[in-house]
Write a structure and sequence with these properties.
Layout (H helix, E strand, L loop, with lengths): L1 H19 L6 H29 L10 H11 L8 H10 L15
Helix pairs in contact: 1-2, 2-3, 2-4
Length: about 110
C-alpha cells in the first residue's frame, strides 16, 4: 500500500511541477499519471478486501463500517481513470506503441 501511495505522490508532484511551469505533459508523463493512479486504486481495493475478510461475519453489518469501506473503495475503483485497462495501455506506451487514440486522450488539451 505504501508503494502505491509513494508512486502516486511522486508522480503527482512531477506532474504538478510540469503543468504549473507552463509545460504540456508528454504522453509518457500522462501515462505515468494514469498508471500511478491505477496502481494506487488497485492496492487500496486489495487492502480493504483483506480487512473485510479479516473482520469475518461482522463485516457485513452496517454498524461495523467495513461494508461501507468496501463499497466505497470498489465504487471509486470503477472510475475510468483507474480502470485495469490502464496497465495494458502503460505497457503499450512503454513498448513504443501509439496510445493517442486510447482512453488516455480524453483529457488531451
Amino acid at each position: 500500500m505504501q508503494s502505491g501511495r509513494a508512486f502516486l505522490a511522486e508522480t503527482v508532484r512531477e506532474t504538478w511541477a510540469a503543468v504549473t511551469g507552463g509545460a504540456a505533459l508528454s504522453w509518457e508523463q500522462r501515462g505515468m499519471m494514469w498508471l500511478a493512479s491505477t496502481q494506487a486504486a488497485t492496492q487500496a481495493v486489495q487492502a480493504v478486501e483483506l480487512l473485510y475478510s479479516a473482520a469475518g461475519a461482522s463485516a457485513v453489518y452496517t454498524n461495523a463500517g467495513f461494508e461501507r469501506c468496501l463499497r466505497d473503495v470498489t465504487a471509486a475503483a470503477q472510475h475510468i481513470v483507474v480502470t485495469p485497462t490502464n496497465f495494458e495501455l502503460a505497457g503499450q506506451l512503454a513498448l513504443g506503441m501509439d496510445v493517442r487514440q486510447s482512453v488516455w486522450s480524453i483529457d488531451s488539451r
